[in-house]
Specification:
- Keywords: FAD, Flavoprotein, Oxidoreductase.
- Helix content is 28%, strand content 25%.
- The protein is built from nine helices and 21 strands.
- A seven-stranded mixed beta sheet has the order 5-4-3-2-1-6-17. It has a four-stranded parallel beta sheet with strand order 10-9-8-14.
- The mean pLDDT is 97.
């Protein structure tokens, strides 16, 4: 009977885990002995880092031809239950059937979900860009504003959270509103952050660039103010201030997919499973974790992978390789990704590119914008459905950074 590698998820980590696993099996010449299956709702890779944009075509490229080319099966469905002792998962298939699938090695690459605390009105009256369907809802809503009576609330967008997604959304939003409401419309874009400064995760030098760029884009800041409640007419802040707005966009962080909680082992505050150097979930024998569900050390200096495609792609390559390597007799590969960069789109101002965990500012404005376009329109997209070409960039050592 063929051994079975089962991968849950077809995002950046899941897609690259599948290609890397197929590459390892092919290197060992054991394609007839090992089957690889990816389970996800559809055979698409959603380009989540770009969902804040107004134009969202080609944000979910079809990876079925690629999976076929490398010999990986895709099952349309969602893993709902993981039985690690029995090495079995339950899959709710797209056709409505629930099936059991056994595995010899399991790779959890289910990604992350938007953090949604119990704030009154958050679910009913806010938008987000966490998933493609959410981004489409926001774009439809923005387009619908043109048919509404001109008011301050109609012309005001409040973005809650000044992480990378919040910053990029804010920088882009003024142009989106002008395109719908007209250049003469009095637009307000407000970025709300509960910390004492926007972008508290950035270095002082990078933050100064972001603050100046957003101000030039006309974005207002409200810091030291958390969100208390949201309703159909606006938002209440912990400062006691109320902002009238028809459009509230929630971008306040992410948490590991709920499936991670079903796997035994240590979890961090984001719900991620603590992984060993080979990305095995600690305390398990046959389960590897990757992407946004893995807390993995990038180096020996105390840095850990972030919930980003930059890390997910490399994590996927390593997890997929190791899952296959144990079955086909190849050496395991330790995950290491010491180089860290940030490339942040800042709308019409340009972009910001930093290097290192200290976030040293390296490029700004159009120079950084050109690099950002290269990354988001080429580098992070899946490779062509060509077996050898895909395998050539699926080596667990392969990292795409400037």
């Amino acid at each position: 009977m063929r051994k079975h590698i089962l991968i849950a998820g077809s995002g950046f980590a899941g897609t690259w885990a599948a290609i890397s696993a197929a590459r390892a099996v092919a290197l060992a010449g054991k394609e007839a002995e090992v089957a690889i299956t990816v389970v996800s709702p559809s055979a698409n890779l959603v380009i989540r880092p770009r969902l804040y944009e107004a134009v969202i075509e080609d944000m979910n490229p079809d990876i079925k031809p690629l999976l076929d080319a490398v010999g990986v099966q895709h099952v349309a469905g969602t893993v709902t239950e993981i039985s690690s002792d029995a090495r079995r998962v339950t899959v709710a298939r797209a056709d409505g059937q629930a099936v059991q699938m056994h595995y010899d090695k399991f790779v959890l690459a289910a990604g992350s979900q938007l953090f949604t605390p119990p704030i009154p009105g958050l679910h009913e009256h806010s938008f987000n860009v966490d998933q493609l369907e959410n981004a489409r809802k926001l774009e439809a809503h923005i387009r619908s504003l043109a048919a509404r009576t001109p008011t301050g609330a109609r012309n005001t967008v409040v973005i809650a959270g000044s992480g990378l997604t919040g910053i990029e959304t804010a920088a882009d939003m003024g142009g989106r509103l002008k395109a719908v409401l007209g250049d003469d419309a009095e637009i307000r874009v407000i970025l709300v952050e509960q910390a004492s400064t926007i972008a508290p995760h950035l270095s002082a030098a990078a933050r100064a660039v972001v603050e100046g760029a957003l101000a030039e884009c006309g974005v207002e800041f409200k810091v030291g103010a958390g969100v208390v409640s949201i309703d159909a007419q606006g938002i209440e802040l912990s400062s006691g201030e109320r902002v009238e707005s028809d459009t509230i966009v929630w971008t306040a962080g992410a948490r590991a997919h709920a499936l991670a909680a079903q796997i035994p082992g240590e979890h961090d505050r984001l719900g991620r499973l603590v992984a060993d150097a080979c990305l095995r979930a600690r305390g398990t024998g046959d389960i590897f974790v990757t992407g946004d569900v893995a807390r993995a050390a990038t180096d020996d200096l105390g840095h850990f992978a972030l919930m980003s495609c930059q890390h997910a792609m490399s994590l996927g390559r390593v997890a997929g390789h190791n899952a296959a390597a144990e079955l086909v007799g190849l050496p395991l590969h330790s995950y290491s990704q010491p180089k860290y960069v940030t490339c942040l789109d800042l709308g019409p101002w340009g972009a910001l590119y930093t290097e290192g965990w200290g976030q040293q500012v390296s490029l700004v404005r159009e120079d950084a914008k050109s690099l950002k376009r290269e990354i988001t329109t080429k580098w992070i997209y899946p490779p062509a459905p060509d077996r050898e070409a895909a395998f050539a960039v699926a080596n667990p050592d392969f990292v795409i950074v400037p």
